[in-house]
Design brief:
Elements (H helix, E strand, L loop, with lengths): L8 H21 L5 H8 L3 H7 L3 H21 L7 H28 L4 H25 L9 H17 L4 H15 L42
Helix pairs in contact: 1-2, 4-5, 4-6, 5-6, 5-7, 7-8
Length: about 230
């Protein structure tokens, strides 16, 4: 296996600058922005950019790999969290966020014939293992239902959010969908009540007017009018 030589500090800074600018520009203006324009906005020469990313596809690949590595780091930081349930559901939220950000880049790479299994295969295995650990800890704590595994969660998350993205839903809709999915995955003891207790702090609600008992009238013989 060939080991890549680490970049000099200044070269690494330039590379990260290109990645940051590229992601911001592509997100705002679409993937058709020329790579030379990315170099200009990053304040770098075109030659510097091409030394790191010889093609636009290489830039897309670096963005996708970087985002997946970020998600892996997020999961790794939480496998020993004191609250396993909170750690698992925070990971799901981050998974949705990263998925939305890298989906266009992944599709663009696939359309050029790049072998995504070769590029992302090992990283996805690492992510799957960490996800499994987060899931098992959440289930052991009673925070996550016990009848689901990693394959079902991946299918549920990717399918649901790919569908909502296809209809052009915005961030608020994605947040609502995440809340619905998360609630369905919670263990019985961890589910959030659907609403406040109808009794509330003021005590039980009054019965409908028609259901209230009419006052009883008693006839007392020899003692004046009825009461």
């Amino acid at each position: 296996m060939i080991t890549k030589r680490p970049l000099r500090a200044d070269a690494e800074r330039n590379r990260q600058k290109v990645l940051e600018v590229a992601q911001a520009v592509f997100a705002a203006e679409g993937l058709a922005v020329p790579i030379d324009e990315i170099a200009r906005r990053a304040g770098l020469g075109v030659g510097t950019l091409y030394r790191h990313f010889p093609t636009k596809e290489a830039l897309f690949e670096a963005i996708v790999v970087g985002r997946l590595e970020s998600l892996i780091a997020h999961a790794a930081e939480r496998v020993e969290a004191a609250d396993p349930g909170a750690a698992f559901f925070a990971f799901l939220a981050r998974m949705v966020e990263e998925g939305a950000a890298k989906r266009d880049f992944t599709e663009a790479l696939a359309s050029t014939g790049v072998d995504l299994t070769r590029v992302l295969g090992d990283l996805k295995k690492d992510l799957g293992r960490l996800m499994g650990t987060l899931l098992k800890r959440g289930q052991a704590a009673g925070a996550v239902r016990k009848d689901v595994g990693v394959p079902e969660i991946v299918a549920l998350m990717t399918g649901a959010f790919a569908s909502i993205d296809r209809v052009g839903a915005g961030p608020r809709a994605r947040e609502r969908l995440l809340a619905i999915v998360s609630d369905g995955l919670r263990g019985p003891t961890a589910r959030v009540p659907a609403g406040p207790d109808p009794a509330g702090p003021a005590g039980p609600a009054k019965p409908p007017r028609a259901a209230r008992k009419a006052p009883v009238r008693i006839r007392v013989v020899g003692r004046g009018p009825n009461v």
